[in-house]
Specification:
This protein has about 220 residues and is mainly α. It contains 10 helices and 3 strands; from the N terminus they run H-E-H-H-E-E-H-H-H-H-H-H-H. This is FCD domain-containing protein.
């Protein structure tokens, strides 16, 4: 029996791409809650065999994004309002930790990245370009997660950020929120630049609290 390492890596990479594509489509609302997902339709749409699609759907079921129903097949579960509320409750507890650790571990290059993100955010806030502001908001937090130098923390928070992206896009688009969020990011950056972990944690917790409160107004709307 021979082992083809190149094929194994290729198969794994394909499964990963299929999984992330389907998950992204669900999180972006391209599939509605309750909508059936068929292996044949997805495989034809993505131009792949049914095997990686089947494996991706199994993984998505473990994440709670789809449900397998006997005699009906796989249907989209999606992200509920309660899921979003839970995500922000958890974020409010641990997001500050990333900033605290980043304040003592961040590199000069990462500080430069944060400064550039802030500059671009101010530019696109004036342009009222919500798509770019959403991307920059994600980048700002991702740099801090990376700077915390903790793989488990980065993985958890990156997933939370991704899972709540649809609500985040709507939330940041509410009048005045983009400018307020930028000011909060600038304060967090200043605390990190000053290597002040306590202040960085406090300001980040306050930022997440403000995001949560604004998001709750959107969810109630």
């Amino acid at each position: 029996m021979t082992f083809d390492l190149q094929k194994e890596v290729s198969d794994h990479s394909l499964r990963g791409r299929v999984f992330h594509k389907i998950r992204e489509d669900i999180l972006e609302g391209k599939y509605a809650a309750g909508e059936p997902l068929t292996e044949v339709a997805i495989s034809q749409n993505l131009g792949v065999s049914r095997t990686p699609v089947r494996e991706a759907l199994k993984q998505l079921e473990l994440e709670g994004l789809v449900t397998s129903i006997p005699n009906k097949g796989t249907v989209v579960s999606g992200i509920s309002k309660q899921d979003i509320i839970d995500i922000y409750e958890i974020r409010s507890l641990i997001e500050g930790l990333a900033a605290r650790w980043a304040a003592t571990k961040i590199t000069d290059e990462q500080l430069k990245q944060l400064e550039e993100i802030i500059e671009l955010t101010e530019f696109y806030t004036e342009k009222n370009n919500m798509e770019h502001l959403h991307e920059l908001d994600t980048q700002f937090h991702e740099v801090i997660y990376e700077a915390s130098n903790s793989k488990p923390l980065k993985h958890i928070l990156s997933d939370f950020h991704h899972y709540a992206q649809r609500v985040r896009m709507q939330s940041i688009a509410t009048p005045g929120r983009a400018k307020k969020s930028t000011e909060e990011h600038k304060a967090i950056l200043e605390a990190i630049k000053n290597r002040n972990p306590e202040e960085a944690e406090r300001l980040t917790n306050l930022h997440v609290k403000n995001v949560k409160e604004n998001m709750m107004k959107y969810l109630k709307g």
